[in-house]
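Please fill in the sequence for the structure shown.

STRUCTURE ENCODING:
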């Protein structure tokens, strides 16, 4: 199944290395036949959150939010690429995600995490799981950690070790399963309406 995917990347640091992991994720998903867009905060510069996209009148949101919405709304699933800052999620990533909410509902996400050290950013991934669930795009069970990202992947997004590509294919196959199942479920409005009636809609903010 050909899917529409959005890859979120959340660092604006001058010496950022995680963009390698984001480029790798984009390339791997395209190789698997999907339509993929990368949302990079350097290309989509946002102020610190004041008003969410939904809080603007139709057509009145800033252009940067309109451009993001055109990618986020039709997406079937999301890949979130996160570093680890003080055992948590990078602030630029949190700010990027927080500008939207309902647009994510009933769609899965997958976490690619990275670090300059040996642990691959897994502690940030655990914090990110809670955020993504609250946003209505719960993450799949697996994560894809990339330790020592600065040497594991080159600037073009090509992995140094083919084993990373094999792990990624298994990881993205899992995301595809969830995305396909949830896409089919969203196409059944009666079932979705029943869930909403039972207050299973993610928390409104």
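FILLED IN BY: designer on duty
SEQUENCE:
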């Amino acid at each position: 199944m050909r899917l529409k995917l959005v890859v979120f990347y959340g660092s604006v640091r001058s010496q950022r290395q995680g963009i390698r992991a984001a480029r790798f994720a984009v390339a791997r998903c395209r190789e698997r036949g999907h339509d993929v867009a990368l949302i990079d905060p350097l290309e989509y510069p946002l102020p610190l959150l004041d008003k969410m996209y939904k809080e603007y009148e139709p057509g009145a949101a800033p252009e940067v939010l309109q451009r993001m919405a055109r990618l986020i709304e039709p997406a079937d699933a999301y890949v979130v690429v996160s570093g680890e800052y003080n055992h948590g999620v990078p602030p630029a990533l949190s700010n990027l995600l927080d500008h939207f909410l309902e647009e994510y509902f009933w769609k899965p996400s997958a976490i690619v995490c990275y670090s300059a050290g040996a642990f691959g950013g897994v502690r940030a991934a655990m914090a990110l799981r809670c955020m993504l669930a609250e946003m209505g795009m719960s993450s799949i069970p697996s994560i894809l950690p990339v330790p020592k990202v600065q040497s594991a992947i080159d600037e073009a997004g090509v992995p140094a070790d083919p084993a990373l590509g094999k792990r990624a294919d298994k990881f993205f196959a899992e995301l595809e399963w969830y995305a396909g199942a949830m896409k089919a479920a969203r196409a059944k409005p009666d079932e979705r309406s029943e869930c909403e009636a039972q207050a299973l809609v993610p928390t409104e903010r």
